[in-house]
Design goal:
Layout: E1 2-15, E2 19-26, E3 30-36, E4 56-62, E5 69-77, H1 82-86, H2 88-104, H3 112-127, H4 136-147, H5 161-167, H6 176-193, H7 203-210
Parallel strand pairs: 3-5
Antiparallel strand pairs: 1-2, 1-4, 2-3, 4-5
């Protein structure tokens, strides 16, 4: 059955000589894997460049519940996200957010609240002024955890004073050292409670770019 859905690209990799396999978080079907046949041919109506991390697309897909890998027929960009590719800080944040999202979402259940949150986050990152980027990933991880069912404001952080102050807005503009400490605490929380132990590694690159 051919169906249409909005989707967020999480990753894509080459398959055979002319095809791609991509993982999408879709508005209608949740997390799904798709094969895109012939997209890497020299003459094709569908460009492989559509399937960059966090790209927002509308796709026509074939759904077959008996197959783990579905077929994507066509796709179009629904939002110009040029600044995510042209701005080095935004492109690094894109890499980090993609990893956090990919490690945190599982299953094929549709969740329109989560899809809308992620879509709005991506648009906000694309449009954000450079002065707002230093803390963007921190606010994302806090808000994303809430969508996933974890209210970090009410969590007992014990000796983690930096994140407790940040969550309660007593440190509205943390220093670089404080931001790094907050990120480290958030990553530890995610790996313990959300990602099932899968490590979040791209923060090392993020440290280099932001600092």
């Amino acid at each position: 059955m051919l169906q249409t859905t909005k989707a967020i690209v999480l990753n894509a990799f080459a398959y055979n000589e002319t095809s791609l396999i991509t993982k999408l978080y879709t508005k209608e079907f949740g997390l799904k894997g798709y094969i895109i046949k012939g997209v890497r041919k020299s003459k094709t109506s569908l460009s492989a460049s559509l399937f960059q991390p966090l790209q927002l697309i509308e796709a026509e897909v074939y759904s077959n519940q008996r197959q783990s890998l579905q077929v994507l027929k066509t796709a179009t960009i629904i939002e110009d996200l040029s600044f995510l590719r042209l701005n080095i800080v935004k492109s690094t944040l894109t890499m980090f957010l993609t990893e956090v999202i990919s490690h945190s979402i599982s299953g094929e259940t549709s969740d329109q609240t989560m899809f809308d949150f992620l879509s709005d986050t991506i648009k906000s990152l694309n449009a954000a002024d450079n002065s707002l980027l230093a803390e963007f990933h921190l606010h994302f991880m806090i808000d994303f955890a809430d969508i996933l069912g974890f209210n970090l404001i009410n969590y007992d952080w014990e000796k983690d004073n930096e994140i407790a102050a940040f969550l309660n807005s007593t440190t509205p503009t943390p220093t670089k050292i404080e931001r790094n400490a907050i990120l480290s605490t958030l990553i530890s929380f995610y790996e313990l409670h959300i990602t099932a132990g899968r490590k979040i590694l791209s923060h090392n690159v993020l440290h280099e770019i932001l600092n």
